[in-house]
Amino acid sequence: MPIISVITPVRPDADAALLLEAFTSVAAQKLPAGWSWEWIVQLDGRRGEATRSLPQDSRVRIACGRQGGAGVARTLGLARAKGEVVRTLDADDLLTEGALVRDIETLEAHPDIAWCVSGCLDLLPDGALVPGPYDPPEGPLLLRTLQEAFAADAFPVVGTHLAARSSLLRALGGWPAFPALEALALVMFCAAVSPGRMIAQPGGVYRKHVAQTTAGAGYWNAEEFGTLRTAITSRVDALQSQAWHWA
Q1: Taking the CA of residue 99 as centre, how many other CA atoms within 13 Å lie in the half-sphere pointing to its CB?
Q2: Sign of the alpha-carbon torsion through 218, 64, 9, 66
Q3: Residue 209 pLDDT > 70, yes or no?
Q4: pLDDT at position 189, please?
Q5: What is the reported pLDDT for 28?
Q6: CA distance 61 to 66
Q7: What is the pLDDT of residue 47?
Q8: How far apart are CA 10 and CA 23, in angstroms?
Q9: Over the chain, what is the mean pLDDT?
């Protein structure tokens, strides 16, 4: 039975109520015939009070590791994943109805691609749902499109709505151990070695609130972001120059 593995990194101070909502959105997913899901919950650190709110479910697999940030936690989760397809989901976000089936059907309908990204709905503090401002149209999603948007600070997709064949993610080494931009970076690394597609219908709800990581004052460090940009673009260039492509 094929499996899609949903990987969620969980901070030590994660909101238990939001994590439970994330689980509910996973559990509500309907999958193509024969498929099943597992939820890989990876604690970023040794403490995990938020996970105590989760119901007992054999499909939910919780583990912890040394604290190293979301990218490290996701990669540790990837090592435990059994699925042939991996889907990302943040602990404070939600999957939309039908998100996983659209991911699976897109990859099955296009065997030449190894990844896809879904459109986004921003959930604002006042409860409003707003479509992602830069979401590209349905269809092939080219590295050139991502590079141009990255250079203009208008990245067109949400990296935490990525679905990819697990073999590709393992070949790329999982998520980079960056203090920020690791989800965005992995999308670009995938695009450097494999064709991908955009699913226009929103596959996730990106919750915007004061406690989210990207809302913290220390997250947006201009000097550090310059270094991260160099790290991302140089690795994309290296992947392309080696003429290595997923197959």
Answers
A1: 31
A2: positive
A3: no
A4: 97
A5: 98
A6: 17
A7: 75
A8: 12
A9: 91
Q: How many CB atoms lie within 10 A of CB 238?
A: 12
Count Cβ atoms below 10 Å from residue 130 Cβ, excluding itself. Answer: 12
Indicate the pTM of the whole model: 0.93
- Residue 74 corresponds to which tokens in the numbers above? 């996701």
CA–CA separation, 82 and 78 (whole Å): 8
What DSSP assignment string belongs to the chain? --EEEEEEEE-TT--HHHHHHHHHHHHT----TT-EEEEEEEEEBS--GGGGGSPP-TTEEEEEE----HHHHHHHHHHH---SEEEE--TT-EEPTTHHHHHHHHHHH-TT--EEEEEEEEE-TTS-EEE-TTPPPSEEE-HHHHHHHHHTT---S-GGGEEEEHHHHHHTTSS---SS-HHHHHHHHHHHHS-EEEEEEEEEEEE--TTSGGGSTTT--HHHHHHHHHHHHHHHHHHHHTT----
How many CA atoms does the CB half-sphere of 54 hold within 13 Å? 25
Measured CA to CA, the distance from residue 27 to residue 145 in angstroms comes to 34
Look at residue 212 and tell me whether its pLDDT is greater than 90. Answer: no
From the CB of residue 167, how many other CB atoms can be counted at a distance below 10 Å? 14
Mean pLDDT score, 31-48: 93
DSSP-assigned states of every residue in 99-121: HHHHHHHHHHH-TT--EEEEEEE
Cβ-contact 127, 60 below 8 angstroms = no
CA distance 41 to 63: 7
Please tell me the predicted confidence (pLDDT) of residue 46.
81
Distance CA 123, CA 131 (A): 9
Q: Hey, how many other C-beta atoms are within 10 angstroms of the C-beta on 219?
A: 14
Average pLDDT over residues 6-35: 96
